[in-house]
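Objective 1.3, modelling of assemblies. Example input:
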Amino acid sequence: MDWWVWVILVLIVLAALITLAVVVQRRRRRGGVIGLGEPGRTDSP
Amino acid sequence: MLFSQARKHDVVSTATATRVARVEGFVVRPGPARVALLRLGKVSGAGTLLAWDDVQGFGPDAVTVATDAALRPARDELEQRAEDNELDILGKLVLTERGTALGAVTDVDFDPETGAVTMLITKAETIAGDRLIGLGRYAVVVLS
Amino acid sequence: MTSSSPDPLVRARELTGRPVVTLGGELVAEIKDIVFESSGGYIAGFTLRNPGLFSRSRKESLPWDGVHGVGRDAVMVPDETVLLPTKEFAPRKQARNRDVLDDRVLTDNGQDLGRVVDVVLQGGTTLEIVGYEVEASEALGSAGRRVLIPLPDTIAVSGENLIVPSSATDFVSEDLAGFGAAVDAFRARLREGTN
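Predicted structure (tokens):
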């Protein structure tokens, strides 16, 4: 294959890796709303 | 006098009648709000800070000191941060103690006789100097 | 019950990323998670992350009593000494702690109202959960849209679902502006119901 085909493949792989890194990082940074205490409690009086 | 007017003032030693430095920045401290240190440029030696107490006179055109020995390097962590330009007030974000931003400091009005800071000026408003409660790397904090 | 001006409402997820700044003007961290007491629905505090784009969670958390003020641009703290190790504050591995985002909201007679996308907080000196923002199910007649559902004083959790009294559907709001009044009216209705 010509050399430029390899270049394009590398760029595609790089783009995919960068996208993956950004998505993963966004997920990790996502803040939650977290309840402390016992689940399984219902509002039964 | 305003910081914008006082910046670039020559610092002149009355002992030698020569210019020994130039004012580059101002370090303000709270409790009460005052100019604590001047950050200097165009110095020949190692000293880049000038304490307000060592200022002989702060005039409309120049600052006088008794001797250039008053120019000194940082003595503690706070002064080191001042020297590294972390604590310059011009351009720093103003936050109230409740967490609301009031804009960046565009100018400061001070008393050249005493060094007391009378007013902080941002694009949107002016803030009395006695509202200043803190100044760090990230922001200036003022009472609401 | 008399009140002067009501405490402001804010969405919990808007607090994520907000700078935590000391009264001395130093940036300590950013807010990450909002942590609340399940029993009362009050905010217990926040977990933190380091500022910046590629940063990790910090090992410290900010308990609510360390907060000086929550503002539009920053959460203010007196100094760094108010931070607690997260192990003490909100143990991560503890099975009881749960993130309510993406949970489904059910009425107590079994109707699915939607998926939680945010939580509405109200407060001044304490910050309280007063509502869920959900991506509405068809039951609310506006499938896919975001609506606000008011909550009673106590949060109720069952499995992976959050339970609300069925009368809450009468007080659903479209936006934050009228939601405070909806919460008050809903809670008044609950009180009448038990009298």
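The longest helix of chain B spans residues 77-83.
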